[in-house]
């Protein structure tokens, strides 16, 4: 029974990945608003219903589901851990948020290209960023105290976004390292530059 479940999970994962890859390709070729769910279903050789069994809509297919960070890790972060240093702990959270995508680094780089070339996707990513920033900002204020300046929160979050973007560029240019390794290298380069 376990083997059957594992095969089903593997097939489900492969189907979801194929849908995402086709959606990114359609976006790169036609723009986000230049294709429909029916076009995606045809490109991935599945039914329209199958697409909606996996994803809620076009944005989720292209961008993937919202990152899901372990509640226990969030509680540890709010409590001052895991290292006791705010920025280092945010890096741990960033790794957790991208962990599930670690085996699809080139796909992440393709998504970045699609986003950077489509104003509608830039807007959708910005909305996601704002939502995530609000949640992470709340966590930072819970940890650091209500008087922790919102400007500081914003700068910290923008630094994280810059590291993500830089790591995606590096991944697209050099597939010999994983996204996580490029992310860590980007952080290390910033630390070295800022001394």
Automatic annotation (TrEMBL):
UniProt xrefs under Pfam families: TetR_N
Superkingdom of the source species: Bacteria
Organism this protein belongs to: Nocardioides kongjuensis
Gene Ontology MF terms in the entry: DNA-binding transcription factor activity; transcription cis-regulatory region binding
Keyword Heme: no
DNA-binding region as annotated in the record: 36-55
Database matches in InterPro entries: DNA-bd_HTH_TetR-type_CS (IPR023772), Homeodomain-like_sf (IPR009057), HTH-type_TetR-like_transc_reg (IPR050109), HTH_TetR (IPR001647)
The UniProt record lists the keyword Transmembrane: no
Name the record gives this protein: AcrR family transcriptional regulator
Keywords assigned: DNA-binding, Transcription, Transcription regulation
Domain named HTH tetR-type: residues: 13-73
């Amino acid at each position: 029974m376990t083997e059957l479940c594992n095969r089903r999970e593997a097939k489900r994962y492969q189907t979801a990945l194929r849908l995402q890859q086709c959606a990114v390709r359609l976006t790169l070729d036609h723009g986000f608003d230049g294709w429909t769910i029916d076009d995606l279903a045809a490109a991935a050789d599945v039914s329209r219903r199958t697409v909606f069994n996996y994803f809620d809509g076009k944005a989720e297919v292209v961008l993937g589901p919202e990152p899901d960070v372990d509640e226990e890790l969030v509680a540890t972060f709010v409590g001052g851990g895991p290292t006791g240093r705010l920025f280092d702990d945010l890096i741990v959270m960033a790794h957790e948020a991208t962990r599930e995508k670690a085996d699809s680094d080139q796909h992440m780089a393709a998504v970045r290209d699609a986003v950077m070339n489509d104003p509608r996707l830039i807007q959708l990513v910005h909305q996601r960023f704002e939502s995530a920033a609000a949640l992470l900002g709340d966590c930072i204020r819970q940890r650091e105290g209500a008087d922790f300046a919102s400007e500081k929160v914003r700068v910290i979050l923008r630094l994280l976004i810059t590291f993500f973007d830089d790591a995606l560029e590096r991944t697209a240019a050099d597939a010999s390292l994983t996204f996580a390794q490029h992310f860590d290298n980007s952080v290390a380069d910033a630390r070295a530059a800022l001394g």
